[in-house]
Amino acid sequence: xxxxxxxxxxxxxCQNPSLYLKDNKLLKIKINKKIIKIKIKNNKNLLxxxxxxxxxxxxxxxxxxxxxxxxxxxxxxxxxxxxxxxFSCFHLLITKESNWRIDARNGSHxxxxxxxxxKYGRLDGFSMVDWxxxxxxxxxxxxxxxxxxxxxxxxx
Length: 156
Fold this sequence. Notes:
The chain is an alpha+beta fold. The chain has helices at about 50-60, 70-80, 85-100, 120, 125-140, 145-155, and strands at about 20, 25-30, 35-40, 105, 110. The chain has a 3-stranded antiparallel beta sheet, covered by helices on one side. Strands 4-5 form a two-stranded antiparallel ribbon.
């Protein structure tokens, strides 16, 4: 409440307002350090207020980024490897091998897990995750054992 006018305080009292109406005559909009002023002479310009709010809302929102294929593959892998510790080791291993790219190729090694199997290179990403997990469990017993072997030897 303003002590002088006994009216509720307006948005003009904000330190850095983005939108405010001053003395019911001037609408000010601040968008990215640019100030737009709209004089309101009569009720015909009253449409400027909701339009300004709409502009302000739309212009200051940030578009969400869509999930990438590698994000989906990581979520899928984590659904198959429940332990966070084991998933972290798997994540590090796949990141080193292919950076989660299903089309990665190094000589005769293909896909996420860089396996030496041409059929593996033709699989979809989710099947590559399944094959990689099955291979690692069969050969090393766990994802972290495979990661330790990889760090020591540079391959798995």
